[in-house]
Structures are given as structure tokens and as C-alpha cells.
Amino acid sequence: MKGKEKDYPMFDDLFDAADIGDLAEDQVIAYSQSRLKLEDDREALEYEVAQEREKALSEGRAEGRAEGIKEGEQNILSSIISHLKSQGSSIKQVAAILGRSEDEIAMLF
After folding, report:
1. Dihedral pair phi/psi, residue 88, rounded to 5°
2. Is this structure's pTM higher than 0.85?
3. What is the pLDDT along the chain (109 residues), one digit of tens a residue?
4. CA-CA distance, 98 to 89, in Å (whole number)?
5. Which of 6, 32, 55, 71 is most open to solvent, judged by the fewest CB atoms within 10 Å of its CB?
6. CA gyration radius, the chain
């Protein structure tokens, strides 16, 4: 059957069946095998895309957690430094208490 209508994907199988009806048995088998291979390839590609997406999401979550932890640690450190500063501690004292370098504390002081 020729002259397949466009924009009617729901009729694809009907048009395919009509086309197959004009084929010899070996052609029908070859067509069916070809169609199955295309479907298998499409499913394999969808699976690969899903796997890559999940991997990217997992890596993104891990990166986000690491950044969040680092930011949280900086906030706590700044809060502690601010509190010690308000108590009259020097940069040297704060560095000794926190086990950090004086340069690092001076940047946050």
C-alpha cells in the first residue's frame, strides 16, 4: 500500500501491515527482523541515556553535598571566630584554639 498519510502515527502499524501483505514470505521475515532490531536498538539507546542521566544526577548530588558541607564548615568557623573575637581573643589565640594558621584566621577575623 502506497501513499501513507502523514500526521497519523496511530495508523503506522496498519499501514505497515498493509505493506507487508504485498511482500513475499522471506521479505516479511526480513522486515520483521529489521523492525525488531530497530526496536531493540531504540530500547538500548533509551537505557544508555537513562544510565548516563542517573550517573550525572548522582555526581551532581555528591558535588552539591560536598559544597554544602564545605560551606557549612565555613559558616561554623566564621561563627566561632566571631564569638572568640567578641570575647577579646586575638588572632594568635583563635588560631591556636582552632588549630588553624594565623593567616587563615586573619582572613576570617
Report:
1. 95, 10
2. no
3. 455 555 666 656 656 666 666 767 787 788 888 889 999 999 999 999 999 999 999 999 999 999 999 999 999 999 999 999 999 999 999 999 999 999 999 988 8
4. 12
5. 6
6. 33
